[in-house]
Design a protein that fits this description.
Belongs to the SCO1/2 family. Pfam families: SCO1-SenC. This protein is 36% helix and 22% strand. With 207 residues, the chain is an alpha+beta fold. It has one domain: 3-Layer(aba) Sandwich (Glutaredoxin), CATH 3.40.30.10. The strands form 2 sheets. An 8-stranded mixed β-sheet has the order 1-8-7-4-5-6-2-3. Strands 9-10 form a two-stranded antiparallel ribbon. The two termini are 43 Å apart.
Amino acid sequence: MQKLLVTLIAIVALVAGVVIYNGLPKEEPRALVYNPPRDLNPFMLQAHTGGQLANADLTGQWTFLFTGYTSCPDICPTTMADLGKAMPVLKSASDRPVRVWMISVDPQRDTLAKLEAYASYFGSEFVGVRAEHKDLYPFVNGLGLMYSIPEEGEVDYLVNHSSAIVLINPEGQRHAIFKADHQPGQLPVVDTQQMIDDFQIIASQYN
């Protein structure tokens, strides 16, 4: 009888513990998380590693998508360097591979050779991606990002583009977006530590 009572108490304590745990507020990322995640429209891009990239190339891994260009004077190299420094921690947060696609919004000047030299500088996880505007613009727009197209004949120009980072989940779906931190007198770049914290939460909750 005593053993039965002890067993019942243990079961009740276990159930109570589960109920209390499930009732606790879960830590939520500050990033915009899409619920449910959103499918990407079919696309075809070029990678600096050679060959074409399509939707299937985003599956089986976490991919951080960032728009930029090799001639960018500030936001792009800063963001790429921040992602490079964060990569060891990002990779440790999941048992899936982690990649970064730097999507060039300057196809007029960014050849595959330029993208290879640029992207590979930051690490083997970085892939330089390009396409002509007819394929590039709908892909970038579908991510919820934007960029400006220079006037025909322009040679020395800057490209205005989004500085947010889009997170693609291992199913190849748009899972979250890390928006840039706009502070007076500072570059509008994503807060790296906040992105790391958010990704750790997202990856731990991903099934």
